[in-house]
Amino acid sequence: MPRLLPLLLMLMAPVLPAAAQPQESSRFFPYTLKTTKLPNGLTVVRVPFNSPGIVAYITSVRVGSRNEVEAGRTGFAHFFEHMMFKGTKSNPEGQRERILGGYGFDDNAFTTDDITVYQAYGPTAGLPQLIALEADRFQNLEYSEPSFQTEALAVLGEYHKSAAAPDLKIEESLAKTAFTRHTYQHTTLGFYDDIKAMPKAYAYSRTFFERWYTPANITLFIVGDFDDAQVLEAVTKHYGNWKRELATVAIPAEPAQTKARSVHVDWAQPTQPRHVLAWHTPAARADTPDTAIQSLLAEYLVGDTSPAYKELVLEKQLVESLYVSTAPHRDPYLFPIDATLQDEKHRAAVDATLRRDVKALVDGKVDAARVKAIQDHLRYGLLMGMDTPRDVAIDLAFYSGVMGPPDALASYLKQLGTVTPKQLTAFAKKYLVDSNLTVLTLTPKPAAGGTP
């Protein structure tokens, strides 16, 4: 994601008056958003971009593993990322790909804990056909039970491939320990036993699709070179009669953690030891600075300019890498410092150093100059990464999908520049405390008679 572009101050009104929603302008985001909500709830965001003849068409669905609430039915959000390419009665499997391939579109998708994003990127000349094809598959997806079962086995194969490296096991073990009720306790892939049983869940799969793939749960982001009136007319024509209603499903709330937790993983294959300190932190919202604070804290505590990085990675070389995943989440999630150790014997020293620097922050010892440098780096890096319509569309879709408003990315950029050192300390005092901490350790365990 990570060239500062001219910052525009004005958001243009939508061309069609029906259901048009004007948005407040923001000098923190360099592109104009035109947003319209159709009567059926579908939100359509158009962003003019100087990319002659090229357009990005992104469909953001607010469904991820977070939404998998029934016991035994995890993994279906990711599964539908696969199934959405199976075709419809009007466009059987393969036909959509042949049409888009003829124009040269790049077509892909990804699933997270909170959202599923479908992306098509290519020539504006093919946009009318693309709109019709996308509207068709989101309303009229068809697949047989044998096709469903075949794809379920492919998903199982994907799980096995991922499980060959320690990262999936770390993610699973940490989530299962840190969360006792919330659906974040399983990964995007789902619980292994549920994935194995998935071929028998054809009927449920249709329920899941109809529950979440609804117009009110979807936002279109169209970025690039196009005629706005023509695009909005085409979208209204092809999506406007879609009437499926969004289901109301309660996501279990996670109780507050009251004492420290820990989990250990023995890894049977040669690998480097891992040490993770993970604290529960608030949900991402467009109207609070919590997400920006966590992004700043990650760089402040373990980024390339941090004392911990200089000491543990560069000087003493106790650690190969330090990393914090700060991807925003719809519900309260985790702030995990992940250290890849050079040797098991360094674990205690690494743990002590990381806790020392967190405590210093809690005690109010903050380097304000370094905070300002990190803010500039993060904001300008994000803006400089928006080189193509696809970059802009995916960033917009991701932050909107998690936080809600179509212009959530602008809110995040603004907050990145306005967080104060005092806010970092207050956040650390509230959340980066031992009673809110889960520690994960992973050690390579040699097989009998062998060495890791």
UniProtKB/TrEMBL annotation:
Residues 206-376 form the Peptidase M16 C-terminal domain. GO terms for molecular function: metal ion binding. It comes from the Bacteria. Residues 1-20 form the signal peptide. Pfam families: Peptidase_M16, Peptidase_M16_C. InterPro entries: Metalloenz_LuxS/M16, MPP/UQCRC_Complex, Pept_M16_N, Peptidase_M16_C. Keywords: Signal. Residues 60-189 form the Peptidase M16 N-terminal domain. Belongs to the peptidase M16 family. This is Insulinase family protein.
